[in-house]
Amino acid sequence: MKIRRAAWSSQFLAFAFAVQIFSQARVSAQESGSAIKPYEAAALRDLLTEAEQNNPAIQAAKSGYRAARNVPKSAGALPDTHVQVQSFSVGSPKPFAGYTNSDFAYIGVGVSQDIPYPGKRRLRSEAAQEEAEAHGADIESARRHVLQQLKADYFRLAYLQKADEVLQRDKQVLNVIEEVAEARYRTGGGSQQDVLKAQLQKTKLLQEVITNRQGEGRLQADLKQLLNRPQSSARIVTEPLSRRKLTLSATELHDLTLRQNPEVRFQQEMIKSTGSQVRLAQKEFRPDFNVQYMYQNTGPDYRDYYMLTFGINLPNRGRRRAELAEAEEKQQQAKQVLQDRIQRQLGDLEQAYIIAQTSGEQLDIYTQGLLPQAEATFRSALAAYQANRQDFQTLVSAFLDVLNLEIDYQRQLSGHESALAQIEAIAGVTVP
Is residue 103 a contact partner of residue 302, using CB atoms and an 8 Å limit? Predict the structure, then answer.
């Protein structure tokens, strides 16, 4: 009789402990969810700043832009000036032969300059300038791509770290369930199969923990690569995720994408550049010019010579027509690529917007219905099993419902925030 009372007392204490664990977890979840704070207010903000400063892809795009900014000045400059020195010999192939005894022998110094047809230099400079502006848009494109990837990895890592926390907490609850099952088995109220099932669930939980930590390891490596940190550096720990809400409509995001998306702006600048290339190809039908001037010094007893030469470079019209046709086709290609970029970006935006909207609705269902209901069902099942009014399979099923729903909620929250990060990158907005 004393043994039975001790067993029932043990069951009661275990039950109270399990309820306390769930109550504390529920309060913690509510406090985390009610904290209104943007993700970039702390750890994520610091990581984004670090990536902007250190990521090699962003720095490479900046270097490319700085290099491109020097091209317009080079493209619009005059061709190189040629300086030449001549020795005209008389009576012998040796240099300076006849210099003192023939008025034909001389030493000459001359300069030559090619002069493009008026307007060609300006068009070359304009085309290079517009291409440089495209490289400027490429910096923003690289920046947004890196930061979006960093956010997505961060949100996924936050999910895995929170899931690990949930699994560790539920491992404690499962220990309580196992104790209750063992207590009932010792008093003859349960079966050994109930104890074995509890142990099996603990093993499955351990397997889930190991799988999550493998995924966390891959994300740690990805984040360190984006941050340009050594892979041996300290582990990155995320903040708990809190849900953000998108207030902009699909139409507003559509308009912002057309105005602010860097890939669209890059292609728009390339169209301007190809337009200048077409105008330059048309101007290439005009001839270029060459001016030469030479001073020829003869011996002291003879007069010097001065020679001015003006030349015209007549363009090969067949080659120029081929170049013009090439430039026009490249312009058409750039226009089609722009249309393709617009459609791709708007398509990605629409998909991300749908994911953000539907996942937001699902998060409401979790917080307002599924999670509280599942936890209440588990508490009831645990109490009923402790009082021998419920079978063990129903208790385990209620426990797994709570576990799976909590992990699904964190996964849904991570997907929701990743969709918002994609919208930010495409439309150039910041979701507060």
Answer: yes
Look at residue 39 and tell me if it is in a domain. yes
**54-84 pLDDT, tens per residue?**
999 999 999 999 999 999 999 999 999 999 9
CATH of the domain at 77: 1.20.1600.10
Inside any domain, residue 22: yes
Domain range holding 192? 2-427
d(Cα 378, Cα 416) in Å, to the nearest integer? 27
Per-residue pLDDT tens over the stretch 260-317: 899 899 899 899 899 999 999 999 999 999 999 999 988 888 888 999 999 999 999 9
- Domains in the chain, number: 1
The candidate with the shortest Cα–Cα distance to 216, out of 154, 146, 150, 149, is 154
Alpha carbon of residue 241 to chain centroid: 20
pTM of the model: 0.78
In a domain? residue 432: no
- Our measurement of the distance from residue 427's CA atom to the centroid of its chain's CA atoms, rounded to an integer in Å, reads 13
Q: In angstroms, rounded to a whole number, what is the distance separating the alpha carbons of residues 290 and 294?
A: 13
